Amino acid sequence: MSSSALFATALLLPLGWLGVYALLLLAQVRVREAFPVVGLKAVVGILFLIYGWLALAGESIALALPRWLWIPRVYEFPLELSFTPALGAAGLAMLLIVAVLVKYSETYLHKELGFHRFFFLFGVFVGAFPLVVFADNIDVLFVGWELIGLTSVLLIGFYEHRPRPAVHSWWAMSTYRFCDVGLLAGTAIAHYAAHTSNITLLNRPAELALAHPEHAGWLGALALLIFFASLGKAAQLPFTSWIARAMEGPTPSSALYYGALSVGLGPILLLKFQPLLLHFPWMQALIIGVGASSALYAYLVSKTRSDAKGILAYSAVFEVSLMVVEVGLGLHDWVIFHFVANAFLRVFQFLRSMNAIHDFYENPLFFRGAPHHPAPWLVRRLPRALQRRLYHRAMNGFGLDWFWLNVVVRPWLAMWRNLNSLENALALGERRRERAPITEEDA
Amino acid sequence: MTWGYSRDNLEFLLPWAVLTGLCLFLYRRRGEKICLLLPPAMAAAVAVLKVWLHTRDVQDGVGPFFLLILSLLHLVIAMVLDARATSFASKAAGLAGLVLNGFAYFTDNLFVFSLFWVLSVIPMLAIFRGGHVHARRVFLAHHLLSLAALGGALGLLQWIAPGFSDVTQVRSLPQGPPTLAVALLLLVACLIRQAMFPFHLWFKAAYKTRPFPLSLGFYAGNLGFILFSKLALPLLTREASDLFPYAMACGVFSALYFANMSLVQSRLRSTVFYVMLSQYAMLYCGLESLTEFGRTGVLFQFLTVGCCFTGLLAILYLLEWQVGELRSGRFHGLQAANPQLSIVFLLFALAGMALPATMGFAGEDMIFHAVIERHPVVGLGLIIAAAINGISLFRVVCFLFRGKREDVLDPAVDLTRWQKAALGMILAVLFFFGLYPSWLVQQVHTYV
């Protein structure tokens, strides 16, 4: 079997397994818990062998699957993917992490009501992640990107009988959808300005500008939109606050998405478009600036959080922000190494987080007594009053939630509520003002 | 007219056969009145014959194509809604709407079209009988305005080209300001009928005050769509192509307006209706892009929107009938008692959000590309509207199925076997052609 065929098999295998699993669930066949566990392990095992083989072979593979959406001579949506050994390492890391988490979740979610839902969504993640990492086409990347976002949101709202996860999943959904506008608009603008959606071709901005001088200005807009799209998933400023809310889901999903892989997809997206982004010096400055300020923000907030998962979430954002800075500095393989290393560390920390109290007080392998984290060196040099103020501000996340709710969301919705009242008065003769809940408190 | 059989028409035979079988089944097993089931079957059969006997071009094809979709969806609604959930009068009004619209779809005579345009308003008006006076006035005012615009256009047409009645001969009309005025009047009539901004208040009055028949939501506006694609668009293209950016701006404004409105609705049904209107506004933008794949995307997306919102609204009606009015002030926690319903609703909502692997993704992709190719800023507006629509639909899912319900529901309140079959059929179409859209897209493209 050729390398391309192997690669195609690796991409289609999760889809086949998911199809069988979905049919069994929809047909209401009594599916035992062992089915998804064994199935997912088998899929992950086979994928690991394939990716490992391809990575060791050390060759790059370009794959163009049959025309998925095609009108002869009118329209084409090509499915193009490319495998490189460096990206293969990211794929292998994903598989190792998923394997660990499947083993962990098997007992963690045993007899849980949403057991099958959880494993199905994990399966979707396993199928979608390679689409993002190996996509050589912005359209294909968008497909994987959206599917990962959806599974993430559904897993935040996993405990469906509680209202808070629902509100938080909605918050995360809104952030994702808002930022995904960047990717979708970027896709369309790539077609418009460069007449291609191939990432390799888009990463030659100088050539594109020469080939389509009338649309050269749009390439900057494309770079900006791609960067905007990465902000949501990577929880960069000003979209950081959803990450703490996302901790409502089961711990294995928090580990997979917000500790390790999903949150790291932001820098991976930037990495895929690195030549295009760094072609514009202002974009380079923007990437470094946003990454550095997000890192500082996440660092300070993580120091004041009182919950283990919150600390870990912001620590993960800190690392991801550093990766964004690294992308801005022009590093490539280092970013992938950082991504993989961070993923393993965070998964370990998330999975141990539930034992934190036991570890600190009883486990001889860890410290004894309550942990003591002194304020950072630089902060200790500040006057006491300023330190206290900084601490309080960091505890409140520097008012980021307040900003989104009171400066953006509420005024915006208030305007539309007034218009709705006007419509009701015109259409129904009603004078009563309607209110739709938007915040956690309202809900 | 070309008599003969074409392999390309096979796709019309299969749904018709399925439809007839389903009608018979519903009559025998569910005790539905035969008079409610025959019209969709007849309409679908006529649509099949019409397409089979005629050469396919956009003038002949679009009407039967729409009618077939609407017939299928109507039947699914009939299967999903429990016989007790909707009154006979409401169903009958829906069916009358289907039949009268159907005649309008088939005719190329402008006067016959206008006659059925007028007649099809009557069933809608009938549901206001004895109801909300203010809402009825709003409804009437809008439709009278629409009729005035259509009548004005017809009068002007007779002045420009005495005896003109064949829609297919639209390109033979003389050029000049009067023809432009005709085009603009037709545009206004279409916008009112399709409930586009700022002429959407009649739609709100209808669904908020009366047990608005589900299917009417689709029939009501589609004549506007047909008139737009058959007459107003060719005229506008010829007379005032400079006006298209403004027309597209109106479309994108409608899409954004309805999307934002959907966020602040206190009744979940209203949210879904607004999202539906926003999706229809996107279709206008796609048509106005004047590209081949843009129009293909519009027809494809028309099918998708019809399927998605049939499912979403049918389930909402079913739930409202069972548990009362569903508002967004609280989490209804229906997941525990209605697990299958929640999954089916979620899948429809995902298709409505144009998630990859659903038909909506392919349709929206083509529309966005087409619009951005002509006017990038308008395209960006559409993408933002689509994002907000997704947030609204997810909000509906959260409020309906998440949380804990205080009163205990009968666990039997879930989908019956036949409701599952009907909704499953639409879902299968949405996801199958979402995973492999090429075949259907190419079929739809033959109409463009």
Summed up:
The complex is a heterodimer of chains A (443) and B (448). Chain A is mainly alpha-helical and 443 residues long.
Question: How would you sum up this structure, described in words?
Answer:
The complex is a heterodimer of chains A (443) and B (448). Chain A is mainly alpha-helical and 443 residues long. Chain A has 20 helices and 2 strands. In chain A, strand 1 and strand 2 form a beta hairpin. The radius of gyration of chain A is 23 Å and the shape is globular. By secondary structure, chain B is mainly α. Chain B starts with 9 loop residues before the first helix and ends with a helix. The N terminus of chain B is likely disordered. Classes of the chains: A mainly alpha (443), B mainly alpha (448). Chains A and B meet through strand 1, helix 5, helix 6 and helix 20 of A and helix 7, helix 9, helix 11, helix 13 and helix 15 of B.
Number of helices of chain B: 18
Calculate Rg of chain B over CA atoms: 21 Å
Number of strands of chain B: 0
Label the overall shape of chain B. Answer: globular
Query: Strand arrangement, largest sheet of chain A?
Result: 1-2
Series of H and E elements of chain A = HHEEHHHHHHHHHHHHHHHHHH
Based on CA inertia axes, which overall geometry of chain A fits?
Answer: globular
The computed structural class of chain B is mainly alpha
Q: What's the β-strand tally of chain A?
A: 2
Q: How would the blueprint of this fold be written?
A:
The complex is a heterodimer of chains A (443) and B (448).
Chain A: H1 3-26, H2 34-57, E1 61-71, E2 75-83, H3 85-108, H4 115-134, H5 138-156, H6 163-194, H7 199-202, H8 205-211, H9 216-233, H10 242-245, H11 251-260, H12 265-272, H13 274-278, H14 281-304, H15 308-328, H16 333-353, H17 356-361, H18 377-380, H19 384-395, H20 400-428
Antiparallel strand pairs in A: 1-2
Chain B: H1 10-30, H2 34-53, H3 58-80, H4 88-106, H5 110-119, H6 121-126, H7 133-160, H8 177-193, H9 201-209, H10 214-239, H11 244-263, H12 268-288, H13 292-323, H14 339-352, H15 359-374, H16 376-401, H17 417-435, H18 438-445
Helix pairs in contact in B: 1-2, 1-3, 2-3, 2-4, 3-4, 3-10, 3-13, 3-17, 4-5, 4-10, 5-7, 7-8, 7-9, 8-10, 11-12, 11-16, 12-13, 12-15, 12-16, 13-14, 13-15, 13-17, 13-18, 14-16, 14-17, 15-16, 15-17
